[in-house]
Write a structure and sequence with these properties.
Helices cover 26% and strands 41% of the residues. It has 125 residues and is of the alpha+beta class. The protein has a 5-stranded mixed β-sheet with strand order 1-2-3-5-4. Strand 2 and strand 3 form a beta hairpin. The longest helix is centred in the middle third of the chain and has 20 residues. The two termini are 30 Å apart. The model has no long low-confidence stretch (mean pLDDT 91).
Length: 125
């Protein structure tokens, strides 16, 4: 069972898209063989007026292979599947999906997701 916000997002994506490889962490130069998604937290912000925490989550989508029509089609399918999953996510929303090349090797997108949770680090009054 997922416990962190990144694990919750990764679990939702994997449940909705069982053919994708989904990891709830950032990887250093991975070797990928099929469409792959990495979900990791990039920043945390305190929101004291709401007793909440803002989480900036990055969702990195990558497809293997040299640029081709087939890899572009796989990337389109990967992006559509992940965005559909993120639109079902109740604790936050995605704001931007930016095309990129990861590690000078993999075509992909980096999606920014903003989520909010209660501030478990601050004792209640």
């Amino acid at each position: 069972m997922a416990e962190t916000i990144r694990e919750i997002i990764a679990e939702q994506i994997k449940t909705d898209n069982p053919t994708f490889v989904v990891k709830a962490f950032a990887a250093s130069k991975p070797e990928i063989e099929k469409p792959t998604v990495y979900v990791y937290r990039e920043a945390v912000t305190s929101i004291p007026e709401k007793a909440a925490i803002g989480h900036e989550i990055k969702v990195a989508l990558m497809v293997p292979g040299l640029p081709s029509e087939a890899s572009e089609n796989a990337l389109d399918e990967l992006l559509a599947g992940v965005l559909t999953s993120l639109n079902r996510f109740k604790l936050g929303q995605w704001s931007r999906a930016e095309r990129t090349v990861f590690y000078d090797t993999y075509s992909g997108y980096e999606i920014t997701v903003t989520a909010h949770t209660s501030n478990i680090f601050k004792p209640s009054a």
